């Protein structure tokens, strides 16, 4: 870490702590996620690193490199100075339809690219959707800890965040992770429009069992007090479909009339955002795997790490 200067702490979670750093040679601000060496360097961490490093897209936080400190594995990545999309919605209560579409188009652009690269995210949510600090904020998808490469097998583990999780993910059978991602994107769109989660009971939002029942029966409604166009309602009805085989796909979603309205040129078919290549980070796969292997070894000295309980969940993930 000698090449970086720590500026401040910017977050914490199950993983440990995230810090803002400055590259001493370029003056670039970057985000570094520190994960304690040893047992915390599990399959999720390895999957996050290996999947994230292969992606390069304007709507995905850019992976830079991984490093070892005496006590932690450090994942260096692009810094999204605009914070979480979630915080922006909380501040605004809800977005106008045009503003929601502006962010949703970018989200779908990033997710579509992930799927093209045979990776499903499996934990898409507002908290994992960051923004840069430009005048017209650019969406940056982050946190690939529950991501799954579809080159090996279809996912079957129940992972994700309850409010965003698709019905088929709860079945504990194999499911199409790409189609499940579409459902989560739909939840994100609904929250941007309404300022509440579609499948939570407003009178009992912390009742997890009730939320699950509502997801399984696709029970949701748009409040009378919120104006949403017929076209947008139609798109939501195509996303919130219990049978994944009948749910709208990303290619069809991108052709939907509501989505295509005011679509930036770079996001259209053949546009610059649709033609991104595999990322070519400075470290080879062999070097990354070697660092991860070293980071998994038990620490010889006790350490104290900052952490808090997150809201994402994983059940039987080892099966994959």
From TrEMBL:
Entry GO MF terms: ATP binding; protein serine/threonine kinase activity
Enzyme Commission code: 2.7.11.1
Record field: catalytic activity: L-threonyl-[protein] + ATP = O-phospho-L-threonyl-[protein] + ADP + H(+); L-seryl-[protein] + ATP = O-phospho-L-seryl-[protein] + ADP + H(+)
Isomerase keyword on record: no
UniProt keyword annotations, A-Z: ATP-binding, Kinase, Nucleotide-binding, Serine/threonine-protein kinase, Transferase
Alphabetized InterPro entries for the sequence: Kinase-like_dom_sf (IPR011009), Prot_kinase_dom (IPR000719), Protein_kinase_ATP_BS (IPR017441), Ser/Thr_kinase_AS (IPR008271)
GO biological process, one term: response to osmotic stress
Major enzyme class: transferase
Top-level division of the source organism's lineage: Eukaryota
Ranges where the Protein kinase domain occurs: 4-259
Residues holding ATP: 33
Family to which this protein belongs: Belongs to the protein kinase superfamily.
Name assigned to this protein: non-specific serine/threonine protein kinase
